Amino acid sequence: MSGLSVSGLSYAYGGNQALEDVSFSVAPGHFCALLGPNGAGKSTLFALLTRLLTSRHGRIEIAGHDLSRHPRRALARLGIVFQQTTLDLDLTVRQNLTYFAALHGIAGRDARRRVDAALDRLDMLPRAGEKARHLNGGHKRRTEIARALLHDPQVLLLDEPTVGLDAAARHAITGHVHDLAADGISVLWATHLTDEIRPEDQLVVLHRSRVLAVGTAGDIAAGQGMAERFLAMTGDGGTNGTALQRAGGSVA
Amino acid sequence: MTGHLTALRAIILREALRFVHQRERFVAALVRPLVWLLVFAAGFRAALGVSIIPPYQTYITYETYIVPGLCGMIMLFNGMQSSLSLVYDRETGSMKLLLTSPLPRWWLLFSKLVGSTAISILQVYAFLAIAGAFGITPPWKGYLTLFPALVVVGLMLGALGLVLSSFIKQLENFAGVMNFVIFPMFFLSSALYPLWKMAESSELLYTICALNPFTHAVELLRFALYGQFNAAALGWTLLATVVFTCGAIYGYDPARGLKGRKG
């Protein structure tokens, strides 16, 4: 399938199991939130999805390309926003994006056109000439999202992209990325903040290395507030998960 | 292939920009060997006489002897500096950007290597220009024949830097690299004294010096600076480059994992 598909994925750091039999999929045009408390395995999952780590157990497909068999094809269709800022603070917004375009083999007029389009999409074009160091947290994030879109990825991964931002910036960025999903991109948004998730979003709840629930956020919340539901699910060791998992199914 | 070259150019440009932004680094890289050349060498000249050994055809002053060693020192420190910046890149996350590019990882690492080598070579020629101003000049064509040797040595030390950066987990551990890699490599080599002098004082130290790849790198530079070709030195330097490069490819293998250990 196109979009993102993960099946039977496991990973251990030595003897410590960090992920166990994780499966879910995100179809094109869907916003999927990956919700989990600290230590649930989100960062490990992101490292595997971006091939910073590889595992022999399980399979990851990005836009129909197997990440372990055809890593270059898969990575070429993947946009990534890491949790930590990865901008070169001494370079301008435009230089940062141009450098990234070059890492994807895009240069010259094509690169300029894509950089302008991506910055415009995130309302960052007026700041193209500013040094990254002088941007506020929200603008840095928007720059990174614009950068992740430069090569027209079909799948966009964001690892807790709103950490450290104020409420207004969080709201704006969450809205921008929902719009991107509406434009046809598969979005996987890792977070531990339940207020970033809309009832119609797809949701994967990760807890203690395992998938606790998969489905639509509204269904999983089951009439409760998302935060209360999430706490109830993860607070008691996740024993509530079994019934929920049955209720959910695939995020496709 | 165009995509590969685009990335190579961008990575080299970024290394160059970073270097320009760190003017202190350039000054420090020049001051270090100049202190050796103009202060230490003046003191040691009386104590150490250097007889006629290849590639020199006459008696030479100690300053003349250590110039190739100091070129090697610039490259050694620069290789470690780029290793340090790789560890820093990894801590700040910008390394992830590089490693998630769809271009082959070996090509990206090679581009980094070429970038840091180019910076090293610039520094060496700046140093030779200053040394020349103080009257320490090799034959003029030596400046040309030195270039390919600098490329090989730069790649070898850059590859060593890559290996170290893949195994050093935190920036704080870098002081250990200074103590256990840079200083032994530099002092247990022919950079500051000819190996026969070392053999006179200790056979064991002589053997270690002879096995040290940095010794061969310095000898390659020394011969090249005098327009001569030292096949053995080139062979050992190339061998070390291959070994270090394999180490770097292994070190950056995603199956080993490069990210922090957290869930």
Automatic annotation (TrEMBL), chain B:
The UniProt record lists the keyword Oxidoreductase: no
InterPro entries hit by this protein: ABC2_TM, ABC2_TM_bact-type, ABC_2_transport, Alc_ABC_transptr_permease, T7SS_ABC-Transporter
Pfam family, one: ABC2_membrane
Residue ranges occupied by any ABC transmembrane type-2 domain in the UniProt entry: 24-255
Membrane topology: Multi-pass membrane protein
One GO term describing the cellular component: ATP-binding cassette (ABC) transporter complex
Designated name of the protein: Transport permease protein
Residues annotated as transmembrane: 34-53, 65-88, 109-136, 142-164, 176-196, 231-252
Family that this chain belongs to: Belongs to the ABC-2 integral membrane protein family.
Main subcellular localisation: membrane
Key words of the record: Cell membrane, Membrane, Transmembrane, Transmembrane helix, Transport
Keyword GTP-binding: no
